[in-house]
Write the C-alpha cells for this entry.
Amino acid sequence: MFVRFRQAATGVSLCAAALCLAAPSFAQPVEEMDILQMIYKDTDLVTPTRSPKPISQVAENVTVINADEIEAINAHTLADVLWHVTGVQMDIRGGPGSSTSAFIQGSDPRHVRVMVDGVTINNLADDFADIGSFPVQQIERIEIIKGPASSTWGSSLGGIINIITKSPDPDRKIGGVASSSIGERTTADLRTELSGTVGSLGYYIYGGGLTSDGLTTNTPDDKGDMYAKLLWDANRNARLQLTLAYDKGARGDGQVPLYNVSIKDSFEYFFSTLSFNYAFSDDLSLDISGRVSTKRNKQFQNSLISGEELAKTVSNELDAGGSAKLAWKKGIQSLLVGADYDSGSVDSADFGGRQTEVRWALFANDTISLWDFSLTPGLRYDHTSTSVDFVSPSLGLTYSLFEKTIFRAYVARGFNSPPLGFISFVNAGGFTSLKPEEVWSYSLGGETAVLKYFWLKVTGFINDIRNVITQNPNPPFQPLNAGKQCRQGVEAELRTIPLFHTSLLAGYSFIDATDRETHQVIKNVPRYTYDLGIDYNDKDTLRGALRGHYIWWNASPDANAKYTAMIWDLNLAKKFFERDSRAVEAFFTAHNIFNGAQYSEGVFPNPCRWFEGGLRFKF
C-alpha cells in the first residue's frame, strides 16, 4: 500500500513540475465560477431516458465523456477511455486493440450493455462487447449509466455505455482531422476524418487502422475500420440519417504455458442504421429507426511447442430490428413512449448449429419538473422468445437544494437475459431452462460546488440480485440459476477549477460484493479503485494530462494476480501552428511510467512502460 501512494505522490509532483516548466504563460486565478457549469453546461443535453434533457434532471448515476477529453488522453480505443472513468473497472490484457472487459459497480462484463447509434454491440452468443477493438475518432460523446437501466434499454443489469457518434459539420463544406502515431513494438495508429454540409446534405466519414507487434507476449494486433454518417434535412421538420460502420482485424490474446496453449482471434463487424425524425410541432416529434448488424468471430488455440491447431471456434451472428419513439414536451413535462423489436441468430457448431431469438418491448417514461424538483417515472415490458417476460419499473428524483447543489435518488428493477450460448447449452443437455438475472437497485447521491474552487460528486448504491447465473461445478458444467448476491458501495469524484490553467481530479469507488446465502465476500469482483490526475490546458499551445489508476482486484489466490502499484500515464500535446480552423499539433504519451504491475490473472499481465508519439492535423 505504501508503494502505491509513494508512486502517486511522485507522479503528481512530476507532472506539476513538468507542466509548470513547459507553460509559456499563466492566467489569473478564477475568483467566481459555477463549477457545475464548468464540468458540464446545463444546456448540454444527455439521453439516459432516450430523450434529450439537462443533466440536472437526470436521477441516474451518469458520467459523460466528450470528444475533447478523449483527444486529451490520446486514446486509441474505447477501452483506453473507460480505463479512467470512476466506477468502471477495466481488465486490460495487452496494448491498444487487445481483448478487454469492463465492469460497472462490480457487475459481470456481460451485464454491461454497449450501444453505438442505437445498435447493441454485445455478442448474442455470450454478451461480450469488444470494446478493445472499437475506435474513438468518430465518438462525439459517451454516456455511462452506472446501474441497471432496464426500464429504458432492456437487458442491462450492470449498466449502459451509450456512444453517440459525431455529426456532420453544419458550418463548412469540408473539414476534418488527420493523425498518425507510432510507438514501441511497431505500434501505429493512422486516422482520417472528413466532415461538412453541402446544401441540405451533411456527411461525416472516418477511416483508420491500428497495428502492433504486441506489448505483452503473443498480443499482436492488426485492424482497420471505417465509419460514415449521412444526414439529409428534407425540410425544417423532417430529417433522414444513414450510418455505416465496418471493423475487421486479427490479434493475439496471450498464452497459457501451463497448458501449452496460445490464443488468437479474428473478427469482422458491420452495422448500419437508417432513421427518420419528424417534428409535428415544437412539442411533438416522432423518431423511427431500423438497424442491422453482423459479426463473424473466429478463435484459435494452438500448441506453444509445435504450433499445431488444438481447437477452433467459429461464430456468425445476424441481428436486425427497429425502434419507434414518440416524444412530447410541454410545460413541466417531457413524455416519451416507444417500442423496440429485434430478431437475432447465432450460427456456430459449438452451440449446436443455428440458434435464434426474437425480442420486443414497449416502454414509457416521463420527466416532470416542478420548482426545484424533477421526477422521472419509467416502465418497460420485455418479451424474449428464449426466456420469460419481464417488467422493469423505475422512479428517479432530483432536487436542487441550492444553486450549486443537486441531490439524486433512484430506484429501479432490472434484468439481464441469458445469452444464446448459455441457452443452447442448457437446452441441448435437457436441463431446466435459464431465467433472467434480476436486480432491485437503489442509489442516493448528489453533487455540489458550494466550496469555492471544488466540484464534488458522491453516490451510494445497493444492488440486490437473484437468479444469478453461475457454472455448475460438476460435469457437464452447464450454466444455471443459483444463489443471490448483494453488491453495494460508494463512489466519489472531486475536481478543482483551473488555476494557472491547471486542475486536479480524484476518484474513488468501493464495492462490497457478498453472497447473500453464505455471507462470504465474492472473489474476483474489484473491491476498490483509486483515480488521481492533473490536467493542464492553456487553450493556445500546450495541453497535458497525468492519470493514475489503481484497482484492488480481490482475485482468487489461484489466479496469480498482481496489483501492487498504481498505473500512471502522461499525455502531452503542443500546437505548433493554428490559424482559422487549421492547426498542427504534436502529441506524446508515456504509458505506465513507473513500470507498475496491475492484472487480475497471472497469465495476462499488463504492458510494461512504453512510449508513443505522433502528429495531428486539423483543417
Summary: Confidence is low (pLDDT under 50) at residues 1-38. The two ends are 47 Å apart (CA to CA). Residues 277 and 287 are 4 Å apart (CA to CA).
